[in-house]
Each structure stands twice: as C-alpha cells, then as structure tokens.
C-alpha cells in the first residue's frame, strides 16, 4: 500500500541494527529522514566506543512483502558502485531483519549530508563514465548476480552472453508487465512483436558483429535527477538508489531523453567528451531512443 496509508510507527533501537553497527557503540540520536512508497528512512547518530566523535548512518526500512530481496539488491548494487567510485557513493555498512519488527528488512549506509541539487553536467558524467570504464563484469557477461528491482518490479538479471540477448529479455518483460496492467491490446501486441523481431536486432546486433564487442559496464540502472545530489562536505556528486547490472554503457542515460528530468542533451554531449560512442556511431540516436522506450 502507499506510504500515506501505511501504519509504521517505529524508532530503531540498538537491538534492531546491532549486527551492522560498530561494536559497543551507543545510539544517541534517531530522526526520520525521508520516505517513499516502499520504505521509510532514518538518520542514526552513534557514539563510538572510546571516541569523542560521533558517526552518522543512513537507514532505510523496506515495507514491502519482497523487502528482503529489495534490501539485498540495493546493498549489492550500492556496494558494486562504491567499489568503483567510493567518493561518489555512500558506503553500505550492512543489511538485515529488524530484531523488533520481524519481516521488516533494512539497509544501513554511511550518512552523506547532501544538497538536493544537480552537479554540473561535466562533474556528473565524469563519475558515471569512470564507473562505466573502470568496472569489470565478474563473469565477462551481461547481467548481475541477483535480481534487481525497479521500484517494486523485479528485473531478470540472469547472465547473458550478448547484450542483444539481455536487452531483448528485459524488453519482453517490460512489455508483459504493461499488458498485465493495461490489459491486452492488438496494436500494442503488433508493435511489441516488431520491436523484438526487427528493431532490437537491427540496432543492437551490429555492435556485436564484424569483430565488434560491447563491454559489459557497471550501470547504475536509474540515473534520474532524484538519485543524484551534492555532498555538502566534499562538494562531490553523490549517486544513490542503485539498481545495478552489467550492460551497454549507453543504456545508463536512457532517461536523459525525457523532458520531465533535469538531465538532457547537454549531459549526453558532456558524456561523449570523455567516452567514445559505440560503433556503429551512426546508430546512436536510434539506440538512445530504443533504450528510452
């Protein structure tokens, strides 16, 4: 149910998160720090043992029947990004089940005090391009080692040998979800079949033929402005709410095409000042439109 209708009155206690906090620390402050349809967030400040300083953490508690899977997915996604660009992603500390609320699962990360602003296009895309260029798929394939969620919708991330295979499966899943929500529609069915049988092979297959290869890059999976901020202490861009998988780097800025977002054509152009367009380059605009579909 939507958060506004949910009943969830809860203050984290040491017992709830003791396994992922520093040993023998003391919680000195807890405050709510945001909410969504699926989760409630908190800022937890602790006193470290034998330390004068305090340390703060960000805690997100999932209120969903698939909360355990969603928490693990966010933890693994965030960890993968933090491993590549640690200055720009909060370090995940751990995840688990609340001791005092069985069935409720949480993720704990270092707290980053952020301004709700977009960094400059050049600073933002530099972080994204670094992650794309310096990440390596552990299998050399496309996908991820567990199911990742877009909102509360699971994404099938089983490993695929080719990008065309992975993207075709993802597109079919999207189309099937649309049919479940909207009901059957003949025109949509016909268009869906043509996209799968003609458009995807035409635009994606050339990148993996005639000796060409697509590098499986670590993608954020949800790079809209609501998942980006600026660290108030370091002034560095910060990315969060990762839904990661290894895929074609250009797919990561599909949402930059939408007019409702603060990202736009300028971000695409800035990205390609520090990274190359995949060959065949003349297909880029059509690939971008396909990824944004």
In short:
With 293 residues, the chain is of the alpha+beta class. Helix content is 31%, strand content 21%. It has two domains: 3-112, Phosphorylase Kinase, domain 1; 121-291, Aminoglycoside phosphotransferase (APH), C-terminal lobe (Aminoglycoside 3'-phosphotransferase, Chain: A, domain 2).
What descriptive keywords fit this protein?
21% strand, 2 domains, transferase, Phosphorylase Kinase, domain 1, three-stranded antiparallel beta sheet
Descriptive report:
There is one protein chain. By secondary structure, this protein is α+β, with helices and mostly antiparallel strands. The protein has two domains: 3-112, Phosphorylase Kinase, domain 1 (2-Layer Sandwich), CATH 3.30.200.20; 121-291, Aminoglycoside 3'-phosphotransferase, Chain: A, domain 2 (Alpha-Beta Complex), CATH 3.90.1200.10. The protein has helices at 14-17, 67-84, 121-134, 163-182, 186-204, 265-271, 284-291; strands at residues 26-35, 39-47, 54-62, 92-97, 105-110, 114-115, 148-150, 153-155, 217-219, 228-231, 237-239, 245-247. A five-stranded antiparallel beta sheet has the order 1-2-3-5-4. A hairpin with a 7-residue loop joins strand 4 (92-97) and strand 5. Helix 3 (121-134) crosses helix 6 (265-271) and helix 4 (163-182) packs antiparallel against helix 5 (186-204). The longest helix is centred in the middle third of the chain and has 20 residues, at 163-182. It is globular. It starts with 13 loop residues before the first helix and ends with a helix. The model is unreliable at 1-8 (pLDDT under 50).
């Amino acid at each position: 149910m939507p958060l506004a209708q949910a009943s969830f009155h809860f203050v984290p206690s040491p017992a709830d998160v003791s396994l992922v906090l520093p040993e023998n620390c003391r919680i000195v402050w807890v405050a709510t720090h945001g909410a969504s349809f699926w989760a409630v967030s908190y800022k937890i400040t602790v006193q470290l043992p034998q330390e004068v300083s305090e340390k703060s953490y960000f805690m997100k508690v999932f209120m969903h029947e698939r909360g355990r899977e969603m928490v693990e997915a966010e933890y693994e996604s965030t960890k993968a990004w933090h491993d590549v660009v640690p200055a720009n992603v909060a370090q995940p500390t751990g995840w688990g089940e609340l001791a005092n609320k069985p069935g409720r699962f949480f993720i704990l990360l270092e707290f980053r005090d952020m301004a709700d602003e977009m960094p400059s296009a050049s600073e933002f895309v530099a972080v994204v391009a670094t992650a794309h260029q310096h990440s390596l798929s552990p299998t050399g394939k496309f996908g991820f080692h567990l199911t990742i969620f877009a909102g509360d919708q699971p994404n099938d991330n089983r490993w695929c040998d080719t990008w065309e295979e992975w993207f075709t499966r993802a597109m079919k899943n999207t189309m099937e979800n649309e049919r479940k929500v909207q009901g059957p529609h003949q025109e949509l069915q016909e268009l869906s079949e043509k996209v799968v049988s003609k458009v995807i092979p035409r635009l994606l297959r050339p990148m993996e033929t005639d000796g060409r290869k697509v590098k499986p890059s670590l993608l954020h999976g949800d790079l809209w402005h609501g998942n980006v901020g600026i660290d108030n202490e370091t002034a560095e861009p910060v990315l969060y709410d990762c839904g990661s998988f290894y895929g074609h780097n250009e797919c990561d800025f599909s949402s930059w095409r939408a007019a409702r977002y603060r990202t736009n054509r300028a971000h695409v152009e800035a990205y390609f000042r520090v990274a190359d367009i995949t060959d065949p380059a003349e297909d880029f605009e059509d690939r971008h439109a396909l990824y944004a579909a």
